[in-house]
Structures are given as C-alpha cells and as structure tokens.
Design a protein that fits this description.
Distance between the termini: 86 Å
Strand order of the largest sheet: 1-3-2-4-5
CATH architecture of the largest domain: 3-Layer(aba) Sandwich
Strand content: 5-15%
Largest sheet: 5 strands, mixed
CATH class of the largest domain: Alpha Beta
Shape: elongated
Structural class: alpha+beta
C-alpha cells in the first residue's frame, strides 16, 4: 500500500527574513519609520486644524454675541448708494450689516429671502458691508468683488454665488465666480482694485461703528435694531408692527409644516 504523500514543507517567515540582505532590511526599516512619521504628522496637522477651527468658531460666537445698539430706539441708516432688492416704495426697509465669510450671515440668508417672498412689495432689503477682517481674512476681498460685480448689475447674483461657496473666497475663486456669471473680466478686475470701491466698503464699516454695530449679521428694520441670525418669526414680529403702525395689511404666514 502506497503511503500518502506529505506536503512540501514551506520555509518559515523568520527563515525568509533571515535570507534578506542587510540593505533590504535597512530599507524596509526606513520605510516603516517614514510611514510612522507621516501618520504622526497627519495626526498633528488634523489636531491643529481642529483646534484652530474651534478657536475661530468661539471668536465668531463671541463677536456675534457682542452688545449692539438699543433695540428700543429707532436709528437712521444710510441707504443711498447701497445695493437694494425690492420696491423702493416698500413701507418697510431691512438694512443688513453683513459679510460673505460669516457663517451666521450664511445661516440667516434663507430667512431674509423668505421675508422678501412673504412680504413681497412691502419689504425692501438693503445690503451694508461689514467685513470682520480680524477673524475672516477673505471677507474684505469678497466685499470688494461683490461691489465690482454690482457695477455690472450682478450684485445679488454674485452675492448668492459667494454664499454658495463660502469656504472658497480666495482671490482666484472670486475671479472664477465673476467668470461664471459672464462678467466683463477686465472691467471686474479694474473695479475690484478701484480705491473708490474700497471707500464705499469703508464707509459702511464706519457707519456700523458709529451705530454701535460690531457683529454680523446685524439688522435695522425701519431703524429698529435686530441682532444676529434670528428665526423668521422674530423678524416678522417687527415687520408686522411696522405695517400695523401705518394701517397696512399684514400678510398671512405660510405654514412651516
């Protein structure tokens, strides 16, 4: 009777490693060390990025929570020369001190659009620049670019483009958004760097400071101060009061369900 064949023995891992020459072992060791260093560096970079993100968020929240004008007073806000949306004859004007890199400004933007829709013909929206350059390094350039787009009657389209791409507001991206909107790029670049446009933005900032506004977004509804990214109902309450003062009808509010 023929005996069963035994399997051919395979060399152990340790014996295979012993056959590797010293240069190969050194190379493998170096690769392992480099991988370990790379992983450590990635972990450190991620930790630093998270820490910076948390710090910026805390700064934004602190600025957003800063005291502002007295909500019981009525202030005068300069409207001439500012970008507006809505009927000039509207009985209620909402002046918004805002900027394009602020996350709270982005958060409240759908609310402002909803107000314009619900109170169509009764509300006019006015944009006032307040770039918080101390915490948002791209905010000023974004404001200047928006004004350059305004010179080609595309302010609100560019406004929406910036908010839709809030994480990418570097100069090259600002140019790309202008190109996407088919703007005259030579004119856009000239206007974006025009000292007169910078003066417009600086005039808005100076007005905000004079009013006691230091956070974004900040609103004046017929001169009455409303701070921050408030819900629709907060704005609607003030608007309804302003309409009632003028014996004007208050529109029904659509259901949120």
């Amino acid at each position: 009777m023929r005996p069963t064949d035994s399997p051919t023995p395979t060399p152990s891992t340790s014996s295979s490693m012993q056959k590797l020459d010293p240069l190969t072992l050194t190379t493998l060791a170096a690769v392992i060390v480099m991988l370990a260093i790379s992983l450590m560096n990635m972990w450190n970079l991620n930790r630093v990025a998270n820490a910076l993100g948390e710090r910026v968020t805390r700064l934004e929240e602190a600025v957003s929570g800063a005291p502002g004008p007295d909500p019981k007073r009525t202030y005068t806000v300069r409207i001439d020369g500012a970008p507006t949306k809505g009927a000039e004859t509207a009985p209620v004007t909402i002046a918004e001190f805002s900027e394009f890199q602020c996350p709270f400004c982005l958060k409240v933007d759908p609310t402002i659009k909803r107000l314009a829709d619900v109170y169509k013909g009764q509300v006019r929206i006015v944009w006032k620049h307040l770039p918080l350059s101390s915490i948002h390094q791209n905010a000023l350039n974004a404001a200047l670019a928006a004004e350059a787009a305004r010179n080609q009657n595309k302010f609100w389209e560019y406004h929406d483009k910036l908010f839709a791409n809030q994480k990418k507001l570097d100069v090259e991206s600002l140019k790309q958004y202008a190109s996407d909107l088919k703007l005259d790029m030579a004119r856009f670049e000239k206007d974006r760097l025009d000292p007169e446009i910078r003066k417009k933005v600086e005039a808005d900032v100076a007005e905000a400071n004079a009013l006691g506004v230091s956070s974004t977004p900040s609103f004046f509804i017929n001169g009455r101060f409303v701070r921050g990214a408030q819900p629709f109902e907060t704005f609607a309450k003030v608007i309804d009061e302003e309409l009632t003062k003028r014996n004007l009808p208050v529109p029904p509010k659509p259901s949120t369900n």
